[in-house]
Amino acid sequence: MKILIINGPNMNMLGIREPQIYGKDTYEDLVDFIRNEKGEGNQLEFFQSNHEGDLVDRIQQAYFDGVDGIVINPAAYTHTSVAIADAVKAVGIPTVEVHISDPDSREEFRKISYIRKASLATVAGRGFQGYIDAIEILEKSGETR
Description:
Number of domains: 1
Distance between the termini: 13 Å
CATH architecture: 3-Layer(aba) Sandwich
Structural class: alpha/beta
Strand order of the largest sheet: 2-1-3-4-5
Helix content: 25-40%
Number of strands: 5
């Protein structure tokens, strides 16, 4: 499968940002972990941006690139971005929402997810393993655009 793994704002600060919530591993550690676990047999592409429009542009470009599935951690945009949710709906690519922490167990505003209804599933609170779970959901879903 050709899978696009998208990470939103502040994910580039893993290892520095709130290590009591997100751990001490870096974004590069996350990418290496996913490649080591799911790189064989899959074509993985990683994209991270702190800018909402860049995330929307990359989701739209995924349509033209023939991406089979998207794993997305919109980070803070989970709770605010109708634009990202609309982009996922527009391209029709099977998408799984993932979060390192469990937003539902944190502040009240984090319980809102605009992307959830545009996604096949949500994986939260499983750390880096959540990305592997999300890829496996895509692999097993059999859904195509």
